[in-house]
Amino acid sequence: MTEHPDIAALAQVMAPTFGVDEALDWPSVEERLDCRLPGDYKAFMSLYGGGGIDDLLSVLLPLHKDGIQWDPGAIEDEISGARSTWERTPA
């Protein structure tokens, strides 16, 4: 994954602890979700992984992953609702 400048800046103030080396096969993930995911999300996931930042923000995994201690949820559970909202939202 190419380094994303915003994620590199974030790493200067928030050390990656748990998500490092959580490699994902992004082409397979995007095929399963039937959508492309933003580059900054993929860069964030490659450095931090899914989970929470304090009690302020939850970052969903793209797909469910077995055997993790805390499951923040997955984009795959939310994508059909998001598509429905997108389709109903005026341009």
Q: In total, how many beta strands?
A: 2
Number of helix segments?
Answer: 4
Uncertain spans, ≥5 residues at pLDDT below 50?
none
Shape: globular
- Spatial order of strands in the largest sheet: 1-2
Structural class, judged by helices and strands? Answer: mainly alpha
The portion of residues forming beta strands comes to: 5-15%
- The radius of gyration computed from the alpha-carbon positions, rounded to a whole number of angstroms, is 14 Å
| Percentage of residues assigned to helices | 40-55%
> What letter string, H or E per element, gives the SSE order?
HHHEEH
Q: What would the average pLDDT be, to the nearest integer?
A: 82
- What is the first-to-last residue Cα distance? 32 Å
Oligomer: single chain
**How many domains is the backbone divided into?**
1
For the sheet with most strands, the description reads: 2 strands, antiparallel
Description:
The protein is mainly alpha-helical and 91 residues long. It has one domain (5-88). It is 44% helix and 7% strand. The chain contains four helices and two strands, in the order H-H-H-E-E-H. Strands 1-2 form a two-stranded antiparallel sheet. It is globular, with a radius of gyration of 14 Å. The termini are far apart. The model has no long low-confidence stretch (mean pLDDT 82).
